[in-house]
Amino acid sequence: MTQWVENPAGGRDRGPQAIVRAWVEVMVRPRRFFNVGVAPGDQAPGLVFGVLVTLIEVSSRIAFGGVSVGDSLLSKLFALIVVGLFIAPAALHLTAALQTVILMALVPDRGGISETVQVIGYAVAPCLLAGLPFPKVRAACTLYGAILLAVGTSEVHDTSLVRAAVVTAIPSALVFGYGFRGFDAFATVFPSLAGVVPW
């Protein structure tokens, strides 16, 4: 089910430059990116991309005091290792499994779970900046991430954008609303939403 092939046809290149290029492309030209950058059975680049974005977001939160993991450098490194090796990959795969179940019900002719993992992994690209101590920035990042997830799902699974938005509503709430604290950011930016946002 999971292949890490050397030169996947239609998949992403490996290496730091490829990761930076993928970030720029998915941020600027998401439709084209999801059309050419997601390949069946080649989920490794998308998984690595999503984990790296999450690590940078968590590192920013630690650096700016948004999350407390202890004062020592060792405790901070340990927290990042746990996030990078366990929490982020597990969260991505569990969310992909949930979205696949929803896709099965609403999109009969769809891509596989590998493509779904890649779409979620690349959709978190804006959250690279979500760890900064600015609620407006975090709100914008998480909103754009949710939009990217819908767009990517529409392109990769060949369905309408409206149906993709329905399919990705719950995964987006979990990943961007709770995982990257989008709900909290929107409640801070728009106090009138404080009683409406699901906590």
Task: Report what the structure shows.
InterPro entries: Yip1_dom (IPR006977). 67% of the residues lie in helices and 0% in strands. The chain has one domain. By secondary structure, it is mostly helical. The model is unreliable at 1-10 (pLDDT under 50). 40% of the residues are buried. The chain is globular. The chain has 9 helices and no strands.
Low-confidence stretches: 1-10
Give Rg in angstroms.
Answer: 17 Å
Q: Largest beta sheet, briefly?
A: none
Q: What's the number of extended β-strand segments? A: 0
Mean pLDDT: 90
Q: Roughly how many Å apart are the termini?
A: 35 Å
Helix share of residues? 55-70%
Order of helices and strands: HHHHHHHHH
Basic shape = globular
Structural category is: mainly alpha
Give the count of structural domains: 1
Strand content: under 5%
Q: Treating each run of at least 4 consecutive H or I residues as one helix, how many helices?
A: 9
Subcellular location: Membrane
Keywords: Membrane, Transmembrane, Transmembrane helix
Membrane topology: Multi-pass membrane protein
Transmembrane segments: 77-107
Q: Quick recap of the structure?
A:
The protein has 199 residues and is an all-alpha fold. It is built from 9 helices and no strands. Helix 1 packs across helix 2 and helix 6 packs across helix 7.
